[in-house]
Write a structure and sequence with these properties.
Layout: E1 8-12, H1 24-47, E2 52-56, H2 65-70, H3 86-91, H4 105-114
Parallel strand pairs: 1-2
Helix pairs in contact: 1-4
C-alpha cells in the first residue's frame, strides 16, 4: 500500500516580498520574527525529515546594498508599474534600508548546514 506524502513549500523573501505593499515600520515585528522562526522551522524539518522546498529571493544572498549593486545586470529590466522595480527601490536613498530586513546570509547558511 502506498502512503501519501505531504510537502511544504515556503517562500523566503523578507522585506523584498512586501516592500511594494507595506512600510518597513508596519511590518517590522514580522520581519524581526524571521530570525526566531526560521531556525525553529528548520530544526523541526530536520528532526522529522520533512520534505520541503524553500524558494529564496536571490537578493538575500548578498551582504549589503553596495555588494548587490555590483551585480546589477548591464541592462536593468523595465517595469510597467515603477513601484514594483526592486532596482529603483535599491538606489532610492529616501527609503529606510535596514540590512537585517534585506540580507540574511547567516540563515541561508544555517539551512544549508542542516540539509
Amino acid at each position: 500500500m502506498n502512503n501519501g506524502s505531504f510537502t511544504i513549500s515556503l517562500d523566503f523573501e523578507l522585506f523584498w516580498g512586501i516592500r511594494d505593499k507595506r512600510s518597513m515600520e508596519s511590518y517590522q515585528q514580522n520581519l524581526d520574527g524571521v530570525y526566531t522562526a526560521i531556525p525553529k522551522i528548520l530544526k523541526l524539518f530536520f528532526q522529522y525529515s520533512s520534505h520541503t522546498t524553500w524558494a529564496m529571493v536571490g537578493f538575500l544572498f548578498f551582504k549589503d546594498f553596495e555588494e548587490l549593486k555590483k551585480y546589477f545586470p548591464n541592462t536593468l529590466p523595465t517595469y510597467a508599474k515603477k513601484e514594483l522595480s526592486p532596482y529603483d527601490y535599491i538606489v532610492n536613498d529616501e527609503n529606510p534600508k535596514d540590512l537585517k530586513y534585506h540580507f540574511v546570509k547567516e540563515l541561508i547558511i544555517l539551512k544549508a548546514l542542516l540539509f
